[in-house]
Amino acid sequence: MNFYQEVYRLVRQIPAGKIATYGSIAAAISTPRAARVVGFALRALPENSDVPWQRVIAASGTISIENMEHPAEEQAQLLQREGVEVALRDGVYHIDLQKYFWDTFVIQ
DNA sequence: AAGGTGACTAACA
DNA sequence: ATGTTAGCCACCT
After folding, report:
1. Which residues in range 61-100 of chain A are in contact with strand B, contact meaning CB within 7 A of any of its atoms?
2. pLDDT in tens, A28-82
3. CA–C1' nearest nucleotide, residue A30
4. How far is residue A17 CA from its own chain's centroid?
5. Nearest nucleotide by C1' from A63 CA?
6. pLDDT at A106 exceeding the cut of 80
7. Of all protein residues, which has its CA closest to the C1' atom of B8?
8. Collapsing DSSP states into helix, strand and coil, what is residue A67?
9. A108 has pLDDT over 60
């Protein structure tokens, strides 16, 4: 099983209403510095995947997607629908990491 | 087959 | 405080 598959497997376990960061996912799999690869794995995800990609955000608590096929706006709405508070300030979506962070080391 | 690239991040200058 | 650099690794030329 390669890195991408590990990422998908882990992200699928994030419960609705909770979020994780690229770095935390990477750290849970192998190395804390592979955050970049996590992002790439999610980018490569097919449209009809069962992986909740919207629950993965940047470590800064912001949504880092700006102008791709899936804009930050869409991700923000998906999260709000799940009960996660998303605040828009200065064109950047912020999320309370302390409040919604899913501890990836508590595998269910 | 080998090298550039990217939804990141933390450490430095 | 803002800018750059290195580490990560599958995918696409």
Report:
1. 64-65, 68, 70, 75
2. 998 889 999 999 999 999 888 999 999 999 999 999 886 666 789 999 999 999 9
3. C8
4. 12
5. B7
6. no
7. A36
8. coil
9. no
More confidently predicted of A65 and A27: A27
So what's the pLDDT on residue A23?
94
Element (H, E) at A88: strand A86-89
Q: b/e for A43-82, b at 16 or more Cβ within 10 A?
A: eebeeeeebbbbbbbbeebbbebeeeeeebeebbebbeeb
Q: Tell me the three state secondary structure of residue A86.
A: strand
| Strand B contact nucleotides, protein CB < 7 Å | 6-10
